[in-house]
Specification:
The chain contains 2 helices and 5 strands. The chain has 118 residues and is an alpha+beta fold. The chain has 2 domains: 35 residues; 54 residues, SH3 type barrels. The longest helix has 35 residues.
Amino acid sequence: MGFFTSDAWAADGAPAAAPGGGDPLASMILPIGLIVLFYFFLIRPQSKRHKQHKQMVSALQKGEEVVTTGGLLGKITNVNDNFITLEISRDVFIHIQKNSVQSVMPKGTIKEQSGAKE
């Protein structure tokens, strides 16, 4: 018929498929599967790490050597409810929040780092 339009042809005797006439359970498998994958690969590991960090922060004690999220290495000299006092050099103390402690280092890490020559 026309150059920019196509001709429409009716199907002979074949009933037209009703939209949405499929099995509703089969159409819900993909979204439910994605939710399950998100839970096991994203939500669950993140909550597990959060729980471990919370336990580590609550167990901080005087004398432990720690690394902060900012990268400071120091020794804990005082522990309060929300803050700790960290000695980062001889007679240099800073007060930081407990939650900013990234990890607890093995004893002797500060001596090992201060004794390293560049």
